[in-house]
Amino acid sequence: MSGHSTYTPKSGFEKWIDQRLPLPRLMHDTMQTFPTPRNLNIWYTFGGILTFCLAVQIVTGIVLAMHYVANADLAFESVERIMRDVNYGWLMRFVHSNGASMFFLAVYIHMFRGLYYGSYKAPRELIWILGVLIYLLMMATAFFGYVLPWGQMSFWGATVITNLFSAIPYVGPHIATWLWGDFAVGDATLNRFFSLHYLLPFIIAAVVGLHIWALHVPGNNNPLGIDVKSPQDTLPFHPYYTVKDAFYLCLFVIVFAGFVFYAPNFFGNPDNYVQANPLVTPPDIVPEWYLLPFYAMLRSIPNKLMGVIVMGGAIVTLFLIPWLDTSRVRSCRFRPLMKQFFWALVVDCIILGYCGAQSVDAAAFGIPLVWVARLASVYYYAFFWLIMPIVGLIETPKKLPASIAQSVLGDSAAAAAE
Amino acid sequence: MTDTTHDAGTRRDFLYVASGAMGAVGVAAAAWPLIDQMNPSAAALALASTEIDISAVQAGQQIVYKWRGHPLFVRRRTPAEIAAAKAVDVSSLPDPLARNANLPDNAQATDADRTIKPEVLVLIGVCTHLGCTPTVSTPTAVEGEYGGWLCHCHGSQYDTAGRIRKGPAPQNLAVPPYAFLSDTRIKVG
Question: Fewer Cβ close by (within 10 Å): the C or N end of chain B?
């Protein structure tokens, strides 16, 4: 998509195509010869894994939509029919529902990898921002999808999430009514959520296209966080990274299949096997695991509007990371101080997730979890708004290697290669 | 072509601005139906009022009915519960307004302003935080610290008049428009 093209059409047909719609040239330059840093590790294979996840969700989703009925009276039953009567319906549904969890698992690894190696730093700010946008779209899509089976968690999750908008002063209640198409979550809500759940994955696919386009302008960052300086620093994408991506994709699919075939309800909530009842809220309503950290933030604030602001701000903050980090060094490998704060953030997010999964009045070791969640929320914000800007200024980074080739091959081999 | 330049702008400038403005109006006019179609339909707006026989509700008990898609709480309060609600200083409440559709908007959240008959409390059973249905206290299982309702979603606590006392909910449980048709029948809506 950028730089010099090495594509040479061989046959007359290829030449004919190349002059009219140079799609083979695009594929050749981006997926075959694209110069990729030679030191990419396992954590860089998750981009390909995520593309796979999106494809799986779209394919299984289209199949499920052939059997699903978006009607408040029939939806729950139609999902049960998919599970029991439709040929391989159980497989399609379990792949789709576990696929959402796998998708988020992969995206969190992908995001933390970007955070650790400074992949959001110049000139890759837009790649990061498009990525956060994809993440937001994924959350919306997953939320809409979770409502569709019309179980108790579907219904009350939809009620709680749409009520978040009612916290907005003055117009909030009108926005909530507009989202519902009624005065409560009901049939109108279910129908529009189905429509949007079908639409958004294609929007995600489009933004993924932009994400990859933006990636192919500066090229990949790498674990050293230093720029590619010479051809010795890179390898052609194919076969080196097509095979590496494929290998780790296989391992990922084994884990995926493990859940689908041996623990298909591991990520699910038993309450969602009870049909939606607008008169009874389940005793403990929890969102899907991938939203728990944000949910914990929401619950830890004893004020409706502030809770919503803190939760929304946690996501908005992610968009600003490229400008909050003041460090000149990208990779945490050479940032001894930042590395520790980074791992503390990972633990912090897990703690938030744990707090979000427990009931409101729960305690651990005699400490009310609401206070644990408050502290963890403070650290989350502090990491991005205080630690990132300050540590970038005061930290003395370790010495960077001269080049990727030198770091990978050693001094003599790199010199010989030149 | 003759020279069409004038101080007030050319014929081309006029066409440029006019077509641009027309286009903007056209886009807005086309967008509005696409946005407004998501608002409640005529069927959803045609809200029937409901008549409810409340004779089955015993003292200390609550029965949940359905009204406008929402749970409707009818609770027959015991004298002790009424006394507890009356004893509260209104100025100490997080939400000092009655939120009673049968009274002016600025009515105060005294116990008298929350009911028509003190022993019968009629509420919309939707937590004013994020819309869950709060769980009612019974003589054997008290929910929350105030003997009223506890919302298990995010921990909001309501007292025996359905007023918010603790937790993230910003408002008292709403009192719907209703009237007594007889001692045992009410009309809601």
Answer: N
Q: Residue B168 corresponds to which tokens in the numbers above?
A: 């993230």
Give tens-digit pLDDT for B36-79.
999 998 888 877 688 889 998 888 889 999 888 889 999 999 99
Residue B167 one-letter amino acid: G
Task: Name chain A contacts of B130, Cβ cutoff 8 Å.
Answer: 159-160, 163-164, 166, 304
CA atoms of A379 and A358, how far apart (whole Å): 20
Q: Which long-range contacts (CB under 8 A, 24 or more apart) does B179-183 make?
A: B179/B102, B179/B116, B180/B116, B180/B117, B181/B51
Give B132's contacts in chain A (Cβ within 8 Å): 156, 159-160, 281, 285
* Coil/strand/helix, residue A348: helix
Contact A182 B69 (CB under 8 A): yes
B144–chain A nearest CA distance, Å = 11
The verdict on A186 touching B (C-beta cutoff 8 Å) is: yes
Contact A160 B170 (CB under 8 A): no
The domains of chain B are located at 1-39, 45-188
Choose, out of B45, B145, B153, the residue to mutate when testing the contact with A (most A CBs < 10 Å): B153
For residue A326 the two structure tokens come to 């003041």
Token code pair at residue A242: 């097509």
Mutate to test the interface with B, among A183, A285, A310 (most CBs of B within 10 A): A183
Amino acid present at A333: R
Annotation: CATH topology of B45-188: Rieske Iron-sulfur Protein (2.102.10)
pLDDT, tens only, A335-365: 999 999 999 999 999 999 999 998 877 888 8
Chain B residues in contact with A357 (beta carbon < 8 A): none
State yes or no: pLDDT of A415 exceeds 70.
Answer: no
